[in-house]
Design brief:
Helices cover 61% and strands 14% of the residues. By secondary structure, it is of the alpha+beta class. β3 and β4 form a beta hairpin.
């Protein structure tokens, strides 16, 4: 992280003095403090957070995408068979080919959805494991924890929102 964070689009260049920036600047040390506060807040609330995360995992895995993929595969196979029987009829073949392409795209979308769901499950599992293994509050910033747990920090005038990779958001007041 840099010592200061600034936004170039809010800067105005003055002829002699250089840029004047109206964007808020946050020192790296303050961001580190905010992260430690957020992780500790999650730790203090782990009795509430862990069941919610477990429920999130359960609900994200409830839908069985393999059934949806099998259904789409069955439709594709039936259409391909129908396509073979209509080899001599051009207009039917074109329509069937378009429908087969559409179903293949649908299958690809379902597979991408499943991959996204698995990624979310992995991130939630990591946060659960971290909170379960954490025996006391953090006293100092740890880059490894931050990379593993934190997705982003949003800076407001009077508070910060720390978003964990699992989707949990913790507000830290200024």
């Amino acid at each position: 992280m840099n010592q200061k964070r600034s936004c170039r689009k809010n800067c105005v260049l003055l002829p002699k003095d250089g840029p004047v920036c109206s964007a808020r600047t946050v020192h790296e040390e303050r961001l580190k403090e905010v992260v430690v506060e957020a992780i500790n807040a999650a730790f203090r609330e782990k009795e509430k957070i862990l069941p919610a995360l477990a429920e999130n995992i359960k609900s994200s895995l409830e839908e069985n995408t393999s059934d949806r993929i099998a259904a789409v595969d069955g439709q594709i196979k039936a259409l391909q068979h129908e396509l073979l029987t209509t080899v001599g009829i051009k207009s039917s073949g074109d329509e069937l080919g378009i429908e087969i392409r559409r179903l293949r795209e649908e299958k690809q979308a379902v597979q991408a959805e499943e991959a996204s769901r698995q990624d979310l499950k992995t991130r939630i599992d990591e946060l659960i494991a971290f909170l379960e293994d954490l025996t006391c509050e953090l006293t100092e910033y740890d880059e490894q924890f931050v990379r593993m747990l934190i997705d982003k920090i949003t800076v407001y005038d009077d508070h910060f929102i720390v978003e964990f990779k699992s989707g949990i958001e913790i507000q830290i007041d200024e």
